[in-house]
Amino acid sequence: MKQLENQIAVVTGAGRGIGRAIALKLAAYGADIVAVDLKTEFVQETVEEARKLGRKAWAVAANVAEAASVEAAVEQILKEAGRVDILVNNAGITRDGLVMRMSEADWDAVLDINLKGTFLFTKAFSRSLLKQKSGRIVNIASVIGLIGNAGQCNYAASKAGVIGLTKSCAREFASRSITVNAIAPGFIQTAMTDKLSQEQKDAITKQIPLASLGQAEDVAEAVLFFASPAARYVTGQVLAVDGGMVM
């Protein structure tokens, strides 16, 4: 029996990159998947791949930064899937720039999607999770939330906030056997890092003891651990998946 058999997992930002890898990893280990993104067409490929693995899969549209959109999506998910056992808050964006030049709009956009979005989805599912007295929440933070980065004050603040949110929710939900943990990826090879020059990639690699960028699969494996029975007694933790960069 696969370790996530008969469980339903919601993954936000599941259309590509890390989110897609997470959704398909959980599906490979038996979970049925709800793939969430701004538009359903963004997650159709993820849904089709999950179904090829023999799992049920749903595509759901939601703007994670808008409470009404999130509440409607969660209502739809609970109606169609019946319950949710695993929530992975992965949706996120960047709007980089030096603080002296950063617009209020770029600050708000990043905080709204990365931090507020994680809060809204957690809040919206909290009632059903608390009622069933079980569940796993995994939030995707970033090593930038641990160490900061020039030109990313909005992103760093949002991901540091996700870490604080994770620890507070872990304390609130522990009495109902719900674990809440965070993963802090380092530099992962995605469409975002593919835009970097080779010189930039080389400079980043020099900061990483394992001397390479990570893969989306590396983050997905960490999510699988937190979602699995193996992590029954682990909550409120932040796992850096970063090749040793911030050890």
Question: Mean pLDDT, as a whole number?
Answer: 96
Structural class estimated from helices and strands: alpha/beta
CATH C-level: Alpha Beta
Helix content: 40-55%
Distance between the termini: 36 Å
CATH superfamily (homologous) name: NAD(P)-binding Rossmann-like Domain
Count the E strands.
9
State the CATH topology. Answer: Rossmann fold
Task: Give structural attributes.
single chain, 247 residues, alpha/beta, two-stranded parallel sheet, Rossmann fold, globular, 7-stranded parallel sheet, 9 strands
Describe the structure concisely for a colleague.
With 247 residues, the protein is an alpha/beta fold. Helices cover 46% and strands 17% of the residues.
Question: How would you characterize the overall build of this protein?
Answer:
The structure is a single chain. The protein is 46% helix and 17% strand. The chain is an alpha/beta fold and 247 residues long. The protein has a single domain (8-239), classed as 3-Layer(aba) Sandwich (Rossmann fold), CATH 3.40.50. Strands 3-2-1-4-5-6-9 form a seven-stranded parallel beta sheet, with helices on both faces. Helix 1 links the parallel strand 1 (8-12) and strand 2 (32-37). Helix 3 runs parallel beside helix 4 and helix 4 packs parallel to helix 6 (153-173). It starts with 7 loop residues before the first strand and ends in a 6-residue tail after the last strand.
